[in-house]
């Protein structure tokens, strides 16, 4: 029985500006690095853009009405920095800000708790061009000023704030794999950019606390707990290394203001350590989050990777099952298929127990509450001619993960809420519109000529019952 959920549990769902809004040049919005990136041939699935996306910018009232009818308790969305400051800094663009004021007001009127993500990857292009974005310390000041405008605007209205979404993903994809902007492949630069992101994150959280903002703030971390492929001690060590370099490396800094010992030694020994200033530690330590946001999709099963072993594998961005390739860090670890779990058509492993494990690790290591800021299943959906979508696979997925959260609570973890990814269908960064996550189907595809009509999937009604019964369904 699923009776562990507290009465005020936030049953939510999530999105991000670039993936839903569209209106990419309206009301004074500036250009982001993603607006540019999707136009480079071969970078994303059929070069699908978010120019129109699912037109949430114009249809937010319709979308919120669906949320209200469903009984949704919380909606996580992100603000596009380029709507507030078209060039990333300077003068506030009031009409861009107004969109979010209206959105938040509409949510509040509908009894839905807004969960505001300050940064979900759409960096202003102007900052990338002027000083290399995250590669410069200047970003700390500009990001803090941007956040300050949001704090002033939404004080007392927004009580849950996410500072950075998946720093580990945007940094590693942007500077190591080269699959996100700025599409660099350079480890040294990656760790430097990452260090600035840490400082910017801490600076914003520190400001939030100095302003005594009512509410809570934390980063959303993409946590894929690492397993060992088997009990060969070399593989166990590989999994430990992966946990250190892929997880503790970020979360330790958020909470303790210090890089974990083993990871830092590795960076030093390999000439990869970022340049730091003496005052950095103090800033990092003064930006401790109130909760850990956890985005969970899958676990990583790790084995030893020889020096001449695999490095950057291929991601499956086409939805053809079995087309992804092993990847890893030569000399340390590589990711293997877990023979005990099922996979989606995009080769993402389905592992609800991994969610429980991850939550326990976070709660035990950091002693802080968790907000699940993303979890969901990206799959093909079929719209029948009756306008229905029978996504029982999504219901199964979500049900199992909710069960895992229920178990984690009985293990002692404090959980503030659960935001599924995603509310409506939306643009999947590298995978176009065919990889669908929503409760609400949107008629849109890579031609960008869809009717944009919304249809409720079976999972929409199922989650309605979950919310109504506080998780018991
Ligand atoms: C997370 C991002 C989301 C979302 C999700 C699904 O990493 O924070 O923005 O896109 O993953 O990923 P994908 O769209 O690649 O399937």
UniProtKB/TrEMBL annotation:
GO biological process, one term: carbohydrate catabolic process
Keyword Cell inner membrane in annotation: no
Compositionally skewed regions (Basic and acidic residues) per UniProt: 322-334
Any one GO cellular component localisation term in the record: cytosol
Stretches of the chain forming a coiled coil according to its record: none
Protein name: Aryl-phospho-beta-D-glucosidase
InterPro entries: GH (IPR017853), GH_1_N_CS (IPR033132), Glyco_hydro_1 (IPR001360), Glyco_hydro_1_AS (IPR018120)
Organism: Vagococcus elongatus
Annotated keywords: Glycosidase, Hydrolase
Domain of life the protein comes from: Bacteria
Annotated GO MF terms: beta-glucosidase activity
Catalytic residues identified in the record: 374
Family membership: Belongs to the glycosyl hydrolase 1 family.
Region called Disordered, residue ranges: 313-334
């Amino acid at each position: 029985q699923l009776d562990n959920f507290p009465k005020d549990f936030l049953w939510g769902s999530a999105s991000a500006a670039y993936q839903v809004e569209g209106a990419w040049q309206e009301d004074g919005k500036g250009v982001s690095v993603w607006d540019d990136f999707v136009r480079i041939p071969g970078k994303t699935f059929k070069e699908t853009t978010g120019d129109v996306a699912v037109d949430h910018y114009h249809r937010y009232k319709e979308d919120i009405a669906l949320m209200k009818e469903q009984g949704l308790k919380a909606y996580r969305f992100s603000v596009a920095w380029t709507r507030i400051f078209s060039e990333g800094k300077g003068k506030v663009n009031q009409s861009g800000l107004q969109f979010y004021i209206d959105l938040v007001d509409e949510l509040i009127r509908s009894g839905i708790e807004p969960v505001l993500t300050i940064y979900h990857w759409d960096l202003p292009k102007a900052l990338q061009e002027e000083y290399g974005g995250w590669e410069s310390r200047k970003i700390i000041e500009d990001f803090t000023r941007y956040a300050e405008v949001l704090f002033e605007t939404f004080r007392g209205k927004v009580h849950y704030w996410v500072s950075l979404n998946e720093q580990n993903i945007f940094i590693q994809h942007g500077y190591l794999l080269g699959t996100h902007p700025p599409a660099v492949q350079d480890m040294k630069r990656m760790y430097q950019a990452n260090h600035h992101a840490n400082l910017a994150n801490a600076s914003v959280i520190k400001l939030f606390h100095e302003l005594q903002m009512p509410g809570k703030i934390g980063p959303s971390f993409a946590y894929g707990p690492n397993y060992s492929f088997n009990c060969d001690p070399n593989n166990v060590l590989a999994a430990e290394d992966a946990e250190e370099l892929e997880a503790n490396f970020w979360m330790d800094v958020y909470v303790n203001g210090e890089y974990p010992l083993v990871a830092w030694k590795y960076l030093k020994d390999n000439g990869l350590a970022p340049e730091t200033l003496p005052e950095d530690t103090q800033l990092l330590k003064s930006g401790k989050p109130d909760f850990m946001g956890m985005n969970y999709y899958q676990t990583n099963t790790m084995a030893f990777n020889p020096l001449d072993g695999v490095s950057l594998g291929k991601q499956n961005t086409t939805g053809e099952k079995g087309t992804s390739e092993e990847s890893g860090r030569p000399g340390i670890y590589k990711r293997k298929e877990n023979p005990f779990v099922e996979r989606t058509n995009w080769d993402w492993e389905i592992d609800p127990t991994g969610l429980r494990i991850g939550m326990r690790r976070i709660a035990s290591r950091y002693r802080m509450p968790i907000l699940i800021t993303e979890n969901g299943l990206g799959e093909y959906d079929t719209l029948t001619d009756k306008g229905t979508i029978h996504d029982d696979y999504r219901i199964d997925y979500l049900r199992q993960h909710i069960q895992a959260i229920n178990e984690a609570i009985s293990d002692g973890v404090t959980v503030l809420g659960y935001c599924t990814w995603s509310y409506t269908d939306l643009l999947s960064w590298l995978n176009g519109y065919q990889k669908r996550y929503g409760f609400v189907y949107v008629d849109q595809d890579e031609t960008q000529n869809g009717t944009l009509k919304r249809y409720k999937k079976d999972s929409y009604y199922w989650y309605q019952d979950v919310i109504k019964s506080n998780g018991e369904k």
